[in-house]
Design goal:
Length: 263
């Protein structure tokens, strides 16, 4: 299904490639909540106001045969499949020049800068890009088969076709793994990890982990579906961990176990 969808704050989808054209009329639909039909290159595009999991949105589509309720259901499905990434990860992704096929991201840290600089010289021979992160170096590799010694820590993502996904994995390893040497996202369960869940989040994380979906989570937590969605996204942004990814749930569980030992 090809649609244009936006909230007042962000563009959700633009399958039609008409953002610049349709954006001129979005404010009108938000204010009036009345559908607007536009003729764009001989094709009729209907803009409609809808309530979604993230709040009010304007949706544009071209087929008159599709009901607005079906569009809303589809958009909610799209939103449920979306993940929230911290802004700094998005900013880093914009610094990466090119991403061809499947590549990996590594974050290298060392106790001494001279050691880190030495590795920078060596790894630059195989890295497609190096970005300085103020005391650490982020590498983009065309492979995930990298070798380093125990005098540094290289937090490495799995090979991925998604830039943000690889960046997130590398930062998760860098944040939660205590080992040195090569530490990979796919081997997280075999590494020494330390995860701290803040007390205010413990109950919410527990309830989300034992819930099959957002609806059940909302019922257990006494939240509306929209509130449950926002709560999940806030937790994912805070801990960089997704509730529909097995390894990430393992880290959440580790964090809960660490918390229980403190109380």
């Amino acid at each position: 299904m090809r649609i244009f969808a936006t909230t007042k704050e962000e563009l959700i989808k633009d399958d039609l490639g008409l953002k610049d054209v349709l954006s001129k009329y979005v404010g009108l639909v938000f204010e009036s909540r009345i559908p607007v039909a536009l003729d764009v290159s001989g094709e009729t595009v209907s803009l409609n106001y809808v309530d979604t999991l993230v709040g009010p949105a304007v949706v544009g589509f071209t087929s008159e045969e599709i009901s607005l309720e079906l569009i809303k259901t589809y958009l909610d499905k799209v939103l449920l499949e979306r993940h929230s990434f911290p802004k700094f990860m998005v900013d880093i992704s914009n610094l990466i020049d090119s991403w061809k096929g499947k590549m990996s991201v590594g974050i290298l840290s060392a106790e001494k800068d001279e050691i880190r600089f030495g590795y920078r010289k060596e790894l630059s021979k195989i890295a497609s890009q190096i970005i300085n992160l103020s005391g650490k170096d982020l590498y983009v590799f065309p492979t995930e088969h990298i070798s380093v010694h125990k005098d540094v820590k290289l937090a490495l993502s799995s090979n991925s076709s998604e830039v943000l996904g690889a960046i997130r994995q590398a930062f998760i390893v860098d944040r939660y793994v205590s080992n040195s040497g090569l530490c990979t996202y796919k081997a997280l369960q075999d590494l020494e990890v330390h995860v701290d869940i803040e007390e205010e989040d413990v109950k919410l994380v527990q309830l989300r982990l034992i819930s099959q979906d957002l609806k059940e989570f909302g019922e257990k937590a006494g939240l509306s579906l929209r509130q449950a969605y926002r709560t999940e996204k806030l937790l994912e942004e805070k801990y960089w961990l997704f509730f529909n990814v097995g390894i990430d749930c393992y880290l959440y569980t580790t964090g809960l176990r660490n918390w229980s030992r403190k109380v």
